[in-house]
Structures are given as structure tokens and as C-alpha cells.
Amino acid sequence: MKIDGKHFRSLWWNYDDAVLEIIDQRWLPHDLRIQQVKTMQDFADAIYEMRVRGAPLIGATAAYGVALAMANDPSDGNLDDAWTFLEKTRPTAINLRWALDRCRNILKPMDEHDRAAAALQLAHDISDEDVEINRKIGENGLALIRDIAARKPEGEPVRLLTHCNAGWIATVDWGTATSPMYHAHDAGLPIHVWVDETRPRNQGALTSWELGSHGIPHTYITDNAGGHLMQHGQVDMVITGTDRTTRRGDVCNKIGTYLKALAARDNGVPFYVALPSPTIDWTVDDGVAEIPIEERDARETTHIMGKLEDGSIGTVQVTPDGTPGGNPAFDVTPNHLVTGLITERGVCAATPEGLGGLFPEFVQAAE
Amino acid sequence: MKIDGKHFRSLWWNYDDAVLEIIDQRWLPHDLRIQQVKTMQDFADAIYEMRVRGAPLIGATAAYGVALAMANDPSDGNLDDAWTFLEKTRPTAINLRWALDRCRNILKPMDEHDRAAAALQLAHDISDEDVEINRKIGENGLALIRDIAARKPEGEPVRLLTHCNAGWIATVDWGTATSPMYHAHDAGLPIHVWVDETRPRNQGALTSWELGSHGIPHTYITDNAGGHLMQHGQVDMVITGTDRTTRRGDVCNKIGTYLKALAARDNGVPFYVALPSPTIDWTVDDGVAEIPIEERDARETTHIMGKLEDGSIGTVQVTPDGTPGGNPAFDVTPNHLVTGLITERGVCAATPEGLGGLFPEFVQAAE
Prior knowledge:
Helix content of chain A: 40-55%
Strand order of the largest sheet of chain A: 8-7-6-9-12-17-18
Radius of gyration of chain A: 20 Å
Mean pLDDT of chain A: 95
Low-confidence stretches of chain A: none
Oligomer: homodimer
Largest interface: A-B, 65 and 65 residues
Number of domains of chain A: 2
């Protein structure tokens, strides 16, 4: 999408230097810094340190990581090593494993000397496919927003709430949860977005930056506020993204999503999850029981980064010295709290039948 | 309770200087600053800027404000003016109005020249009563914790979760939600407390400071984390405070409390609210419909204060420049989500009958 009128993707291939370039998102929303990702360690850092973040973008980045590995050493051993090295950077992100598996499965049967060029083309393809998937998610979500708008007085905005940043910078373009918002806004449908802050890493600031850059009305709120807003009829629809979706439609997304789903159910607010099909893990059924939740550095909870009064970027410690912190990064929203799943193939119920109906070939492959 | 081994209250009368002293809580947990509250504007600032915070402490502070007003000018007009001036500083805090009403009702019938001394004694009494009320809340809550401990393996800690700071620094001493914790710990019952950060003002850092100073094991978590912890059996009981409780037991507390109550119900975790009876508003029944929710400065959501790397106190801006913020400060948890109310007279159901059984004289007075 656009920044100051110029169209960007979240990553792109620099053909002059033959290198991947990314937006180093750690400095957003305050500073737009571009980084060249040159070494395998650069790739691991980019994913682990969340310079790139969001399930689809992590997958595309990892594909370029495999391409670099193949350019360095196209042997079978190095292909396996690259898979292992990149996979461990973010255990929860299903797209990461999906992209790595896809690369390995395609490259393994090839002659070694063909692998470097093929791996790079594959990374390009994965990126382009992601853009197209998200565009379709936007079209499908737009239909839901239109339905709500049709039941409201003419011109009154549809009020959406979102958690975390499932925006274009969490994908290659469009975003997942934000794609219906961009589509609605561009279609002239008035919307207003409640943006959850999303502690501990405040990805809501990224969503605010995205929406503001695109001209979409929004309000930044604490994660605590959504329940109150729903109680008072201020939310027409929730749309979030997901890092991993189970076969039956349980949704593993940024910590706190589950609480919003509970509030939505308690207040009769539709709760939708936007997802590209690569985030579906067809091997997992019960998300609460089966998905391991990444426990991240406690410092993320006790220290907060932002812009200081002098304009520089700094960190404040909120808690007393030595306070022990706990930092589970994701939670699982059981499928019965999810009104529907917005995919590139359409909207379906969060059930085995719903997902199976849209993606029969994956169900068969998993059986 | 104790700071570095020395016992403090949250406010106290300095007899040498004939002035109220408070802990200016804006600098906690990083710095313990004592302030003398000398003028009516000082009192308004102390309450509005949350130098003192927490319903019971606000009430006690306001009583000292009335005492100052009576020392300055004990006329009927000034008594009414002081009531109005102090009442508007925090519209949600029922204790504030309760304390102001009590002062006015007692002082109004008196000779003007008796009012200054009587008002000061009344403020002392309100403070001492608060300490005694909270001590009893602790005893009553302790019985609930003992029941849970009795059902667990010997020596395994009872895991409590709390939201905001309903601690001793939110009262004159002991705290409300924390009083059962201090009582349990002092009785040798092992506990562990999950401390919600409580955005936007991070009162969880205050709770961590309190609990750490007293030696109670605890972990600081984001507001988003509690649902996940409950899903995985990591929480035995939730105890929060309340700023205002309705006649039927709806609980108006710090924004986000409602979300924790929803998660507790969804996971079968008992959800208790500790409250001194002055926080009960016998004139209100339906909290969601009837209680006006204070909307505070949006800057509280977009900017966060803490300790910088050089040890000084500073503020970081988390969002892009100009991001609009929304900041409802409280929400209402409907009574059907509340397992029980812990009061100074015992534990009761969050129902009209429950509260009426413990406080029959208030029900009659309100009818």
C-alpha cells in the first residue's frame, strides 16, 4: 500500500544489488528504515527480532533465505540446514514452516546447479501469490462490510475493531485483516477502525500508521477498552488475523485475541478472522491443547520503546527494577467463538466442514 | 504496609506542620516522593492527576480537602463550594462523593467555629476506618484462599490474578484486592500473583512494587495474557477491586476488568471483587446502563512514562504523530460474571439479596 503517496511492498528484490530489501519494522511507526538482508544470520535476525513480522511476510522472507542459502551452497545438506536454521526462528508461525517445506520439496528433486535460480524465482512467486491471496481476502471481507453498512443509516460508518497488525506490512501487500478495510475505504464505504494497542509490542501503532497513511479514520485504544466499547454498541464487527488456524477453525493469534472474541460473543458482535490458506495447519485439530505457545523475553512487557521528546528512539522501564515478567505471545480462540473465516476462496464457518468445503484438496492431502 | 522495612500509610497528617502529606504516586514505582498538600488546588490536582489514586484513598484525601476548606473559611457557602470543587475531580469514584457527603452532612449542622477542628478529626476518622475495613476484607478473603489451598497439593501456591492496583497505596493501608494476599502471605500460605499491567496507566507496576516490597511472589503480565493463562489452568482465583458497585452487584472497575471476568467464566475460574462498603452505590442498579464512564486524556494511551536508561523519568510516544486515541477509564462487569463480593462484613453473592443481607441498613436508607 502507499506511504506518502508512493506504493511500497513490505519486501522486494533489489535487482541492481541482487539482494533482498525489507522495511526494518522495529523503527516503525517513527522511522522508515530500509535494510538489505545479506547473510543467513541477517535472515534469522530479521525474523526473530521481528524486523519483519506477520505470518505471511515471515514465510516470504524465509523463502528468500532459502534462495540465499542455495546461492551460497546448493547441496542437499545445505538445503536441510537452511530449513532447520530458519524454522527455529519463530516456532508459532505456520507460514514459516509452510514456505520452507514448499521450497525444500520443489528444490530437492532438482539438479544442484539449477537450485539457486529456481529458489529465487520461487521466493518471487511466493511473494506475488501472497499479494493476490490478500487481495481476494479483501474482496470477500468487503462483502461482509457491505452487508453491515446496508443495515445502518446511510453514511454512518461501519465500526470495525482489530487486534495486532494483520496489515500490509505483516504481509507482502494489502494485509489480511486490513485488506477488507482498504477495499471498503477505496470503494467509498465509510468505516472507522478501533485499533487495539496490542501489548506488549504495540503493533497497534503500526496499524495506526498504516491506516493513517491511507487516510482511513481510526482510533487507537488500549487492549482493555474493546469489551466496554462492545457493551455500548460501538463495534459492528471484529476482524483479526491469525498466525495459525487449525483444521477445525481454532485460531492462534496474537495474545489477547481470545479476550476480544469472548467480549464479541457476550455482546452479539460478529467476530471474523481473515486468513490466507497457508496459515491453516491441517495437522492440528484442538488449538488450545495442541499448539505450543511461544514465550518471549519478559523484557518486552517491562520495557517499552517509543519516540522520546527530542525525537530520538528510546526505551522506558515501566516496572520496578527486577520485576519478573511473563510473556506468552499468542493465545488460541476456540472455533465456537469465531463467526466466520475470511479466506481467499470465500467466507466459511470456523468448522472442519467449513474449511474442508473451501479447501477439499488439503483435507484429502492431510488424511 | 512496609517499604524497606518501614511502615507507611498512603497519606498521613503531619502534626508538626499541620498539613496533609501524601505519597505522590505518579513517580512510583521508580521514586518515592512525599508531597505536602497545602491548597485547595493542590487537593484537586492530587486527585485529578492521580497523585493519589484508588477509590478509598481518594475519599480520605477529599475529607482532608474539606478540612482545609473549613480551616480557610468555615461558612456554609464555602462548605458547599468545597463539595462541588472536589467532587468534579473524578466523576466515577463513588467514595469521593460518599466522603464529601459524609463531611457535609456532619459539618453543616455545627456552629461555624467548631467546623475546622471537627472536619480534621473526621478526616482522621475516615482514614482510620478505611484501614480497619480493609483489614477485615483481608480476613474474609483469606478464608477463600485457604479453601482453594486445601484442595491443592500441600505447598503448591494458590495462583491469583489481579487487575489494576487495588493495593495499599490505593487505600490508606492494606488495600482491598491485595489485603487477602497480604493476609495469606503473612499467614504462611504460599501464593503467587499474576499482576495485570493495566494499560494505559500501568498500575500493575505499582502492584508489582507493593508485592515485591512485601516479598510476595508475582509475575507482571500484559492485560492480554490472562485469558490464555486461565485456559491453561494457571489461575486459581481472580481478585480485583472496584471503584463503584451497584445495588445488585455490578462492578465498575478499571477498564479491562470485564474482559478478565469473561475469561474467568469461560474457564470456570472464580472471580471475586474486594470492596469496602463505601464503594457501593445504593442508588444505581444497572451498572452498564447507568454509570457514566470517565473518558480520560488520549495522551495516556499514546505516551508511556517510565525510567530511562540514565535513571531519569521520561516519556515515550508509541504511536505516530497525531494518532487519535480513545481512553475510557473504566468498564462495568455485570453481576452474573462475579462469583462473590468480599466486603468488610463477609463474602456475599453479587446480587441485591447478597449485598442487602450484609448491609440491610443501607438498603432501607435507599428505599
